[in-house]
Design brief:
Ubiquitin-like (UB roll); 2 domains; 16-stranded antiparallel β-sheet; about 55% strand; globular; 21 strands; mainly beta; Porin; three-stranded mixed β-sheet
C-alpha cells in the first residue's frame, strides 16, 4: 500500500466517527477506495474483484459481495470493507490480512482414498508471485503413483487487460483407473498452454492446446488406441465459465455455469475423440441461516476408440456418496446433487497468540449438511435407460478450517439402504 495514504486514511476514519449519520451510508456515492494491509499484493488484484467503483452508489449487499469476492482469492485470512461517510459521499476502506504465500509442503496421501496406495513426496508453492496473484507450483511424488510437475499461472498479463495465461508440464508414472482390467502401469508426459479472457466480474472464456504421450511397457490390446502401445496426440479445446458464487471455498449464494469441449487427436494420430461436458451449480439462501445447493453435471465422449485413460469414472474424483468406495467406468456420465446447509457455527475469526502475522488471524466455522446424490455412467453400446440410477443420501458435518481447508464427515445410505461413513475434503460442490 502507498504509505502516503495512511495519514489521509486516519483523517477519514476520524471524520467518519464524528458524523452523526443522519443519513444511511448506503445512500452515498463512492468518492475513493483505499486499500490497507496489502504489504505484498498489488492493489489492482483487489480492485479487480470489486463491483463497486468510484462514482457508484453503495448498498450493504454490494459491500458484502465485494468482501466475499476478495476473500475468495484465497490470498487473505480476513477481509473487511468499511464505509467512511463525509458530506454526500463516502470512502471505502478495504482492510486485508495477508496469508503466507510461499512455502514448501509435504506431498503424502492415499491415491483415490485407498490405504493400500500410499504416495509421498514434497512440493514448493507460491500463491502470490510478484504480488499479482500469480501461481507457481512444483511437486514430485514417489510410492504407488509417481510424478514430477511444474505449473505457472498468471490471471492478468498486464495491468490494462483481463487476459490470463497458464502453462504446465508433467511427467507421471501412474496406474490405470479402469476397473474391468487388471492393474498395470502407464507413463504419461503432458504439456499444455491455456490462454483466456475474463469479461466483467463473472464470465471467462479460455482456449487451450495440450500435447500428451501415453506409453505402456506391458502391451495388451485395448490399453492404447495405437497397436504400438504408444499414443501421442494434440488436444485443442475451449471452456466457458460464468461464476457468481459468493465464497468459492464454501458457497451459499450465486451460481456456476461451465461448458466445454475438447478435440483430442489430429492428422495421423490413432486418437480421434471429441469430449463435451457441462457443470451447473446454483446456491440460494432460503432464510438467514439455511442455504440450498443444487448441482447438475455431465460428460460425453464420441469419436473413435476410447482408450482407458480417456474414459470417465465414478469412485475417484467424482463420487456418489451412497457408493463412495465403488468404482465404475464408462464413456459418458451424468449426475445430480442437492444439499441443504445450516451453520452450527457461523464463520468467524480467531486471533492466534503467535508472532507470525500471516498465521495470526484464522478463519473457522462449522456447518451441518443434508444431501441427496444421483448419477449413472454408461458406454456407447449401452442405452441410457438400461443403466440404473445410483443414489446416495445422508447428512454430515462440514468443518471450515483456516487457509480454506475443509473437512467433511458424513454418513450416507444408497438405494438399497446400505450405510457407510464418509470422510472427505473440500466442499462437496
Amino acid at each position: 500500500m502507498d504509505t502516503n495514504h495512511k495519514p489521509l486514511l486516519a483523517f477519514f476514519i476520524f471524520l467518519g466517527s464524528s458524523i452523526a449519520f443522519s443519513q444511511s451510508s448506503d445512500s452515498l456515492l463512492v468518492k475513493q477506495i483505499l486499500i490497507q494491509g496489502n504489504e505484498t499484493t498489488m492493489e489492482h488484484v483487489i480492485l479487480r474483484e470489486m463491483s463497486l467503483k468510484v462514482g457508484d452508489r453503495i448498498t450493504p449487499e454490494a459491500l458484502e459481495r465485494d468482501r466475499d469476492r476478495i476473500y475468495s482469492l484465497q490470498l487473505f485470512n480476513k477481509v473487511e470493507i468499511q464505509s467512511v461517510p463525509h458530506n454526500d459521499s463516502t470512502t471505502l476502506v478495504v482492510q486485508v490480512d495477508e496469508r503466507w504465500y510461499m512455502f514448501p509442503f509435504p506431498v503424502i496421501g492415499f491415491r483415490y482414498r485407498d490405504v493400500n496406495k500410499l504416495y509421498y513426496g514434497a512440493g514448493l508453492m507460491h500463491q502470490n508471485f510478484r504480488g499479482r496473484n500469480e501461481k507457481l507450483f512444483l511437486s514430485f511424488a514417489l510410492g504407488y503413483d509417481r510424478w514430477l510437475s511444474l505449473l505457472y499461472q498468471n490471471p492478468k498479463l498486464t495491468d490494462d487487460d483481463d487476459i490470463f495465461f497458464r502453462s504446465a508440464i508433467s511427467y507421471r508414472h501412474v496406474h490405470n483407473l479402469n476397473v474391468i482390467d487388471e492393474e498395470y502401469e502407464q507413463t504419461n508426459l503432458a504439456t499444455g498452454v491455456t490462454v483466456g479472457k475474463r469479461y466483467g466480474l463473472f464470465q471467462t472464456v479460455t482456449g487451450f492446446l495440450n500435447y500428451d504421450v501415453w506409453m505402456l511397457s506391458d502391451l495388451q490390446a485395448g490399453r492404447t488406441a495405437s497397436a504400438s502401445g504408444r499414443d501421442a496426440f494434440f488436444s485443442l479445446g475451449f471452456h466457458y465459465t460464468y461464476d457468481s458464487r459468493n465464497i468459492r471455498e464454501y458457497p451459499t449464494e450465486g451460481m456456476l455455469f461451465s461448458l466445454g469441449a475438447t478435440k483430442a487427436g489430429f492428422g495421423e494420430s490413432e486418437v480421434n475423440l471429441l469430449t463435451t461436458g457441462f457443470d451447473v451449480r446454483g446456491y440460494a439462501l432460503l432464510s438467514e441461516e439455511w442455504s440450498l445447493a443444487i448441482r447438475s453435471y455431465g460428460t460425453r465422449v464420441i469419436g473413435g476408440v476410447v482408450p482407458p485413460y480417456r474414459r470417465v469414472f465414478s469412485g475417484f474424483d467424482e463420487r456418489n456418496r451412497g457408493h463412495f468406495n465403488e468404482r465404475l467406468e464408462g464413456e459418458s456420465i451424468v449426475g445430480e446433487s442437492v444439499e441443504l446447509r445450516f451453520p452450527l457455527l457461523n464463520p468467524r475469526y480467531f486471533e492466534a497468540p503467535i508472532a507470525i502475522p500471516q498465521f495470526k488471524m484464522l478463519r473457522y466455522g462449522l456447518y451441518a449438511g443434508f444431501f441427496v446424490d444421483a448419477g449413472k455412467i454408461w458406454y456407447r453400446n449401452e442405452s441410457f435407460s438400461s443403466k440404473p440410477w445410483l443414489l446416495g443420501y445422508g447428512a454430515g458435518l462440514h468443518f471450515l478450517l483456516p487457509y480454506s481447508f475443509i473437512v467433511r464427515t458424513e454418513y450416507a445410505w444408497n438405494e438399497l439402504g446400505e450405510g457407510r461413513f464418509v470422510l472427505d475434503f473440500g466442499v462437496s460442490f
